[in-house]
Design a protein that fits this description.
Structural class of chain A: alpha+beta
Shape of chain A: elongated
Number of strands of chain A: 10
Distance between the termini of chain A: 52 Å
Oligomer: homodimer
Order of helices and strands of chain A: HHHEEHHHEEEEHHHEHHEEEH
Radius of gyration of chain A: 26 Å
DNA sequence: CATTGGCACTCGGGGGCCGAGAGTGCCAAG
DNA sequence: CTTGGCACTCTCGGCCCCCGAGTGCCAATG
């Protein structure tokens, strides 16, 4: 069924097609690769590969193009990822090392990934659901307004304004702040709702509405929204599609602005070591593109996803390597910071 | 030189070309507009307009297209902006009303503007240089690390980690926080550097290195960076360019990722009432596009810019109206919040 | 003197045609 | 099983030609 030579032929077809973007024929195959057999033999193998659905020809008398299935087989048979070169690693460190806060890390990471892969890069902010509370701050901004600032152990900062029904005593704010911090600092975000409920109950009657308002605001900013925060970069790389504009680029541009769609594309948060590849029709939303994604985080459990969006005919090996390298670097960065 | 009828003809040419994107000839002009004269007369006028540089023909025996100069004259003769309809205003209020914090306001504003104009929208965060300090917060995050959080009166929040040379006493942090707030809360950001210098000098000798580190960090986050924060949306609208991809869309996509370029395109912060229009070659960076921008802010003085990027053949009147309306709405929103 | 109808002229774009080239499938021989 | 040969099939680019939209100019007109 799938002897070694057939695999070698498929591999050669994928490589050639990825680099030239033109259907590849039997003759050019034997020229560019040392396959040790003649073009006629290759033609036979190609006919077999086509029967099994791994390659196709755009029209009679043209070369072959890998199908989604062909790419899938190719990717599955990539035994291991080559490590990045020393120079590449140094470039990553250089690029990300000077970040000043989490926003900056996210921005730089996304641009770096876009630049390395020459595709559209997507990086999700660390999920609150999988983080710990580091600190809560209450900042009075005017008589009846308090800014509630929540800081996660990943460095992510969420803030929001709470409107309270009556003027607040500074002492009460102070008390509430220390009680909130004592109760939930260091705890996972998912436990916040439970812990905080008791604090409202323990509040003396007159202050309860104000405290309830602040706590409600806190809970709102802690709960994950569907259009969770993410950064996208590298749309300019779509320019290289050029001709196939209408068919490929337009839907991609549309998707890029729909964060909800992107989130679904990135897939479920997985371990930080698996690189997930979804090819063509494997993701129904964008059947002409591929997504390569992985989780990143402090340690083996992922706090969020990052990945790359590109045409199905992309350099899977190199892109997977870059995605993996960036994810593990940002993981280290978060652990230190 | 420029009698009324010539202006009417130019106006008609611009309108037709904007809506059809095809060179417009004398015959179709008299059909679609009530000009009261024959096509031959229009031809004479058109020849005159071409001599004066307001219109051009892509090749002999084609209709006329407005030149940059023609658009400029057209825009300058738009005597006043029609106000938005009630329904449009309600849509804006509906869209922006539910924002929860400044980040959310920026995001929603940009998307709204992109949607209203069907172009690429750019919204700059309120400039710190033109804001007042509302509050400063120091949050110890570990032994030798303090997160410095600065909140502006516009609602903008900047945070950054300071590394101090020795472990900090909570009491010292507390003291520093209150002294910093007492000194600069309510003051403009531009004065922060001066005021804060004295605080370091007044610190007792042993704590001075730590305080200096924190203050240095504060100053860093207060100083405006060249790639100041901004939000971009509506890149999907570029898909409508379709055919002219290589020439028009690719450089635009590239520019969109270069925030420094965008900043320069938006122009200098002007009053909140002027709508600035830069057409084609008037902005050297993107000679085939037009930029429509204005300032927004709390009151008549602008704290930042917002605008729209599109092809030179765009609906200037409608776009200027939308830019103005969104800017004034977000100004009101900031003033209330 | 501005306006108008008429008319010759000019290109750009689309359609049709053709030949070159690349690639295939099949077959018969090694 | 492999290989060289060969007939066949398409796509693509070039070429040509005609159509039509649009122009500029001119002479006539009120």
């Amino acid at each position: 069924m799938l002897d070694d030579r057939k695999l070698a032929v498929l591999r050669a077809i994928v490589e050639d097609y990825v680099s030239t973007h033109e259907p590849v024929g039997s003759k050019s195959l034997v020229e560019r690769h040392q396959l040790g057999v003649s073009a006629a033999t290759i033609r036979n193998e190609m006919a077999a590969l086509e029967d099994e659905g791994y390659i196709a020809q755009p029209h009679t008398s043209a070369g072959r193009i890998p199908t989604d299935l062909g790419y899938r087989l190719f990717v599955d048979r990539l035994n291991e990822l080559k490590p990045m070169s020393g120079a590449e690693n140094r470039a990553i460190a250089e690029f990300l090392g000077h970040a000043i806060d989490l926003d900056d890390v996210m921005l730089r990471t996304t641009r770096l990934l876009a630049q390395l892969t020459r595709q559209v890069a997507i990086v999700q902010y660390p999920s609150l659901q999988r983080s710990l509370v580091r600190h809560i701050e209450l900042v009075p901004v005017s008589g009846r307004r308090v800014m509630v600032v929540v800081i996660a152990d990943t460095g992510r900062v969420e803030q929001r304004i709470a409107e309270v029904p009556l003027d607040l005593e500074p002492a009460l704010v102070e008390l509430l702040r220390s009680r909130l911090n004592a109760a939930i600092a260091g705890k996972p975000f998912v436990e916040v709702a439970d812990v905080v409920a008791t604090i409202v109950e323990e509040t003396e009657y007159v202050n309860r509405p104000a405290v309830a308002a602040i706590v409600a605001c806190l809970l709102e900013s802690v709960v994950e929204r569907p259009d969770d925060r993410m950064v996208v970069a590298g749309a300019a790389n779509l320019a290289r599609y050029g001709s196939q504009f209408e068919t490929s680029v337009a839907p991609l541009l549309a998707a890029i602005e729909e964060h909800v769609v992107l989130l679904r594309l990135l897939g479920e948060a997985s371990s930080t070591n698996d690189v997930l590849v979804r090819i063509g029709a494997e993701n129904p939303a964008l059947p002409t593109s591929s997504v390569i994604s992985t989780g990143y985080g402090m340690g083996p459990v992922a706090v969020a996803q990052l990945g790359v969006l590109g045409p199905t005919h992309m350099d899977y090996s190199g892109t997977m390597r870059a995605v993996h390298a960036v994810a593990s670097y940002i993981g280290r960065l978060l652990t230190e910071g």
